[in-house]
Amino acid sequence: MRKLVILGAGTGGTIMLNKLTEALDKSEWQITIVDQFETHYYQPGFLFIPFGIYTRKDVIKPKRDFFPPNSNVIMSEIEKIEPEQNRVILKNNVVLPYDYLIIATGAKIAPSQTEGMVDGLWHKNIFDFYTIEGACALQQFFKTWKGGKLVINITEMPIKCPVAPLEFAFLADWYFTEHGIRDKVDIHFVTPLPGAFTKPRASGVLGDFLSKKNIKLTSEFSIGSVDNEKKEIVSWDENRIPFDVLVTIPTNMGDEVIARSGMGDELNFVPTDKQTLRSKNYENVFVIGDATDLPSSKAGSVAHFESDILYENFMSAIEGRDMMEKFDGHANCFIESGFGKGILIDFNYDTEPLPGKFPLPGVGPFSLLEETKMNHYGKVMFRWMYWNFLLKGLELPVDSQMSMAGKRL
Ligand SMILES: Cc1cc2nc3c(=O)[nH]c(=O)nc-3n(C[C@H](O)[C@H](O)[C@H](O)COP(=O)(O)OP(=O)(O)OC[C@H]3O[C@@H](n4cnc5c(N)ncnc54)[C@H](O)[C@@H]3O)c2cc1C
Fold first, then answer.
1. What is residue 156's predicted lDDT score, i.e. its pLDDT?
2. What angle do CA 261, 266, 272 make, to 5 degrees?
3. Of 16, 10, 14, 4, which is closest to residue 43 (Cα–Cα)?
4. Which of 24, 61, 77, 303 sits most deeply, having the most CB atoms within 10 A of its CB?
């Protein structure tokens, strides 16, 4: 039997398990998937929890609901990968030898990387919304908050879903308007980027939305520490921004297992060929999703597009053929902009988000780089698509390669 081990049963790992279980001959292949948690979190839903739109139960389902029947599943923390020996060591010292490995261990927040972040005010006046715990704590806080200075701060790039902090700012504007205290809430978006977003054209459009919604933007602010006593964030060059509540997007890092295995960069992301999705260092190791060091967005949509490419290249590799499929960095993100509207962006490594219609050229129904109600419905529908199609590795009506059709230059 040839052995394939998939590490991580989040978005990317689950899709690959479904695709490859279907494709590989069961009499020749043993596929094993490993994850530490039984629960699958729909992470895009974390955004809505602080504003009471979703609760915990709206974003969780058992991981096993999405595995093919009779899958070989191990629920355990992964201690170490030993790529020279082609084996994985689990927390309980179980050893899993492999012929091929797919790493899908994702990324997570590391707030303790910033001095003072997890001191006295953590989950009292400083919150994240990138974890279920942070999002739920913030929901409780907002229920009774009477207003003041709300600072939303990105620590450093890359982060998962780089539009999520902007969406948070837009939803905060909506939420406090609905609660009749918008005039008492001073919303301040503070980012290390030169503008509102990573890509210049979209950054201009999204920056205009911030000012239209009376959200102050401070760019090129690189946080060095949090002063818990004065309730201020402090940049490396000693600029200070006061807050009553700080919503931080802490440093995002790959899992420690990558560091323990000596397989990552300084943020524990795995060096990965940006086109083939094979590890740069090991021929029989592939990487998908947030665990990669690719310059694409860290997003579920990206993991899904990557899965098509990885599937083809994996099948080529095991059959000794050249890997012909090339990932182009395609990302597709609905941006919730508040008051029942949304914006859509579609881009790849080389082409930044452009205006136009999507997915049908000239028809839509979604509009690129424009705020519409239909885009909001797209965002809402994404959760259903995620549970019912995306995780199961089923075809979606969007090509894994970005198309220029329908886009205006
Ligand atoms: C607030 C927020 C909003 C978002 N919004 C969007 C959005 O609107 N659209 C979008 O496309 N994407 C969005 N994303 C991003 C999206 O959720 C992720 O990019 C996607 O889930 C990445 O999939 P993955 O498989 O790489 O990692 P994950 O789905 O995170 O899976 C990683 C898995 O590996 C397991 N694992 C890691 N280390 C170990 C270990 N040592 N031992 C055992 N198991 C381990 C974890 O338990 C986990 O199950 C958002 C994310 C957040 C946080």
1. 98
2. 70
3. 10
4. 303
pLDDT confidence of residue 90: 98
CB 370 within 8 A of CB 341: no
The pairing of beta strand 126-127 with beta strand 245-249: parallel
Task: Give the pLDDT score at 98.
Answer: 98
* Residues whose CB falls within 8 Å of the CB of residue 151, separated by 6 or more in sequence, listed in order: 188, 190, 233, 241, 242, 243, 245, 246, 247
pLDDT in tens, 105-150: 999 999 999 999 999 999 999 999 999 999 999 999 999 999 999 9
The token duo for 70 is: 């009779």
Per-residue pLDDT tens digits for 173-198:
999 999 999 999 999 999 999 999 98
Name all residues whose Cβ lies below 6 A of ligand 1.
8-13, 34-37, 43-44, 46-47, 77-78, 104-106, 129-130, 160-161, 164, 255, 257, 289-291, 298-301, 303, 333
Give the position, in ligand 1's atom list, of the atom nearest the Cα of 135. Answer: 1
Indicate which atom in ligand 1 lies nearest the CA of residue 63.
49
Shortest-distance atom of ligand 1 to CA 105: 34
Return d(Cα 46, Cα 53) in angstroms, integer: 10
Q: What sign results for the dihedral spanned by CA atoms 399, 403, 406, 409?
A: positive
* Ligand 1 centroid, distance to 105 Cα (angstroms): 8
Residue minimizing CA distance to atom 50 of ligand 1? 44
Q: How far apart are CA 261 and CA 183, in angstroms?
A: 51
Residue 215 and residue 169 in contact, taking contact as beta carbons nearer than 8 Å:
yes
State the pLDDT confidence band at 397, using cuts at 50, 70 and 90: confident
Q: Which residues contact 266 (CB under 8 A, 6 or more apart)?
A: none
As a whole number, mean pLDDT of residues 53-80 equals: 98
